[in-house]
């Protein structure tokens, strides 16, 4: 049986180390790694340090990092984004974070997200609730779209981006005419953590990269929210999209996405 409490302690220490590195590296280089996609040497330094720490602490558990790929066990593995929101970080925008989730089978069971420039760490373990520091989190109880603040994930880049972004533009039009406010934060980790924290009522990320999402998905669920795919089915590591929402808005958000996908 997986010891979630012990692994949560490991995850918390890992993201603390990562945030310390991010705050300490006041100068860095930026390199292109694809169409309008970038990596900094901070991303690489953080991932290498966290990988080394996790290899010592949990050698039996695999790891998938955004920059270095997958190593080890493919049934139980850590999903790491060393700097989620790299474009923000590279411009000095403080909306970025370290995201670390433990994926067991198709779902995450342990999560830690540290926001180094906002001085907060979010944590969760399956069945034990979600927390910002010592504060237990509760997702939004909003029931009307007109009361909702909804974040939308980044627009697509790379191959096929034009087609994918037509859907995002349609979604922006639908939500912009109905919700209280739409936000683009540039970090999936923050989008999901803030849905768990009740700062956002929903987050619609039309992608599902495990290093971006798996920690935040668990936070939302443990805070009483729901996370689904575009068809309204339960979100897993294999889902095409990551739609996190307070339970009272689930049907309205799913119906809105269905209209733009139709």
TrEMBL record:
GO terms for molecular function: inositol monophosphate 1-phosphatase activity; metal ion binding. Keywords: Hydrolase, Magnesium, Metal-binding. It holds the Pfam family Inositol_P. Its cofactor is Mg(2+). It comes from the Bacteria. InterPro entries: Inositol_monoP_metal-BS (IPR020583), Inositol_monophosphatase-like (IPR000760). One of its GO terms (biological process) is inositol metabolic process. Mg(2+) binds at residues 66, 81, 84, 212. This is Myo-inositol-1(Or 4)-monophosphatase. The keyword Mitochondrion does not apply.
């Amino acid at each position: 049986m997986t010891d979630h409490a012990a692994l949560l302690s490991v995850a918390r220490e890992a993201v603390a180390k990562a945030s310390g590195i991010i705050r300490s590296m006041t100068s860095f280089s930026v390199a292109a790694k694809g169409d309008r996609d970038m990596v900094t040497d901070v991303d690489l330094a953080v991932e290498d340090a966290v990988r080394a720490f996790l290899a010592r602490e949990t050698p039996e558990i695999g790891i998938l990092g955004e920059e270095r790929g997958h190593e080890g066990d493919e049934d139980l593995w850590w999903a790491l984004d060393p700097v989620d929101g790299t474009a923000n970080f590279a411009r000095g925008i403080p909306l970025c974070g370290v995201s670390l989730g433990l994926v067991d089978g198709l779902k995450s069971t342990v999560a830690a997200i540290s926001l180094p420039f906002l001085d907060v760490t979010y944590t969760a373990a399956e069945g034990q609730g979600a927390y910002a520091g010592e504060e237990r989190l509760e997702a939004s109880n909003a029931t009307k779209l007109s009361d909702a603040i909804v974040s939308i994930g980044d627009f697509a880049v790379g191959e096929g981006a034009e087609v994918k972004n037509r859907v995002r533009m349609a979604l922006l039009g639908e939500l912009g005419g109905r919700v209280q406010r739409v936000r683009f934060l540039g970090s999936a980790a923050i989008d999901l953590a803030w849905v768990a924290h009740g700062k956002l009522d929903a987050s619609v990320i039309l992608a599902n990269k495990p290093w971006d999402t798996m920690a935040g998905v668990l936070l939302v669920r443990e805070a009483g929210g729901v996370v689904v795919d575009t068809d309204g089915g339960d979100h897993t590591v294999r889902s095409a999209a990551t739609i996190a929402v307070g339970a009272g808005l689930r049907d309205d958000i799913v119906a809105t996405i269905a209209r733009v996908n139709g």
